[in-house]
Every structure is written in C-alpha cells, then in structure tokens.
Amino acid sequence: MKLNAVVKHGEPGRPWLVFLHGFAGDCREWQEVGEQFPAFSRLYLNLPGHGGSVAIRAEIFSALAGSLADSLESYDVPDYWLVGYSMGGRVAMQYACNFRHTGLKGVIVEGAHPGLQDPIAAAARWRADSRWAGRFRNEPLDQVFTDWYQQPVFASLSAEQRQALVTLRQKNNGEALAQILLATSLARQEDFRPSLRDSNVPFHYLCGERDSKFMAIAQELDMPCHVIQHAGHNAHRENPAGVVDALAQILRYRPKEPL
Asked: What is the pTM assigned to this prediction?
C-alpha cells in the first residue's frame, strides 16, 4: 500500500534519500536535516498510523516494510539510501534484511534497536507496550506523552524539550498510535543482527552521545557508528547540524549550508 509522503526532487542521476520517522512523528521530522541535501531527491514518508497515513493500518511489523516497498515503486524511486529514526530505523532494517532491494545503496539508522534476543525481555516488552497502547486509546494524549517522555531513554531531555515534544505529539490520533505501537512492538520483531552482519548493503548507525542504551547497542553491532555530540536518543532533533555532518560524511557530499 502506498504511503502518504512529501517529495522533493533534486539533480537527476543522484540516489534518493528516503526518510522514515519514529513513533508518533511524521514526514516533517527529518525535513530540517534532509533539506541540507538539495542535490538528492528526498522522500519523506508518513508511516502507517501517522500524519497523512493515519488511516493506513499495519497488523504486523513486516507490513510496514511492505508498505515501504510499495511506496518506493509508486513514487518511482530507483536508487536510494534509507534513513530512519527509532521505529523508522527498525522498518529500514526489516526492509534491508527481508525484501528485494536492487536499488538500495545503504541504510542509515539513528537510535534503532536491532531486536531482542531474550524471550523474557520480549515478554516484558509486550506487557509494557500493551499498557502504553491502552493509555493511548483511553487517556488524553498530553497526559500520556508527558509520561512517555519520562522513560529512561529520554533522560537527556530538558524540561523545555520534553514539553515541546508533548505539545507536538499530542496532535496524533490515539487509537492509531495504539494500533501501530502493538504492530511494531519490539517484542514482535525478529533479531536483525545475523542478517545485518551477512548483508552486502552498507549499514551505518547514528547515536547521540548521551543515549547510553543505544551507544551500547552500537558497540555490540560492531558496524560503522557515528556519534552525535550534545544529543541523546533523538539526535536529529537535538543536534541537527551534527546529524547533517554525519550524513554528509557517509554520502560524501557537501551540505547546503551550516544549520
């Protein structure tokens, strides 16, 4: 199923940059970073349950990668890099590991989990995600997101940054968020580590220096890692200039101008 997206065309012959947002985000999430690469065509997708794709449902995690594959074909994207944050990064890994992708030049993920290896941890994650889904369905979103951004992974955020995110995210549809949270639960995701290690597709990991959980995951993966200074889990929001620099290094491209 084709996903809603914002399309920006660059120079013919260059690969596209396809941007995938995180949970509760939308196609605007990556645009400040992506617009620093005007020579590339850019595709900013709204994943199922989000933004302009809010009415699109995905019952299982792999369905998101299927929608990505359909969208790449529908938007006529022949050669491309996938750039995904958190949930979007997991979709990018799912796609790279399990779908045919003759035009895929590389995968760049920021703060995305490759998969749980412990069944006990997976069961605990499912219980936690189920509780959050119930709250997204039944409570005001400002209250839910106020608590959501108190989770340890967001510990580096200031009070002002948390409030800005709560204000932004409460514009979502609670039922759609609940549905996609369960469909994409880490408890239902395979472990991508073996496939990533065996893949011939270039893979790069971006991680905020203050994101201790995902810094540890990056070290474990033993793949090219780009540490974003002065940032936590949401590095492209907290330090967009640092992420632009990392992408420019990977793509071997001089960005438009300093942010």
From this structure: 0.96
